[in-house]
Write a structure and sequence with these properties.
With 128 residues, the chain is an all-beta fold. 0% of the residues lie in helices and 48% in strands. Strands 2, 4, 5, 6, 9, 10 and 11 form a seven-stranded mixed sheet that branches. It is globular, with a radius of gyration of 13 Å.
C-alpha cells in the first residue's frame, strides 16, 4: 500500500509560482508512474501532468503546457509539479496519483481510472 501526501499549495497572485510536492510512503517509488490532477469547484477532476516510471514519458494538458513542469526524485520518493505563470483559472485542489509499473506513454496517462493511489489534495488559489 502506498500513501501519497501533497504539499506546497497556497494563495498566490496571477503570474506567480508555486511548487507542489507529492511525498510517498512505501518502497519502490521508482517503479510508479505519477500523475497530477486538479479539480475546481463544480467541475470534474482533470488531468494536469504525468511522468512515467521509466522517466521517458512526460505529458501535460494543453492548458498547462509551457507553464508547468512535472519531475520526480526517486531518491526522495517524491514527485513535484513546478507551476509558473499561474492564472486564476489554475485555481483548484491539486491531487497527485500513482500506479506501479504503469507504462504511461500515451493517452492512457490522462485517465483518472488508470491510477491506483491518490493523495488528499492541496489547495491552489490564484488571485488577479
Amino acid at each position: 500500500q502506498v500513501q501519497l501526501v501533497e504539499s506546497g499549495g497556497g494563495l498566490v497572485q496571477a503570474g506567480g509560482t508555486l511548487r507542489l510536492s507529492c511525498a510517498t510512503s512505501g518502497r519502490m517509488f521508482s517503479t510508479y508512474s505519477m500523475g497530477w490532477f486538479r479539480q475546481a469547484p463544480g467541475k470534474e477532476r482533470e488531468f494536469v501532468a504525468a511522468i512515467s516510471w521509466t522517466g521517458g514519458g512526460i505529458h501535460y494538458s494543453d492548458s498547462v503546457k509551457g507553464r508547468f513542469t512535472i519531475s520526480r526524485d526517486n531518491a526522495k520518493n517524491t514527485a513535484y509539479l513546478q507551476m509558473n505563470s499561474l492564472k486564476p483559472e489554475d485555481t483548484a485542489v491539486y491531487y497527485c496519483s500513482g500506479r506501479r509499473f504503469f507504462d504511461c506513454s500515451g493517452s492512457e496517462c490522462y485517465a483518472r481510472a488508470e491510477y491506483d493511489y491518490w493523495g488528499q489534495g492541496t489547495q491552489v488559489t490564484v488571485v488577479s
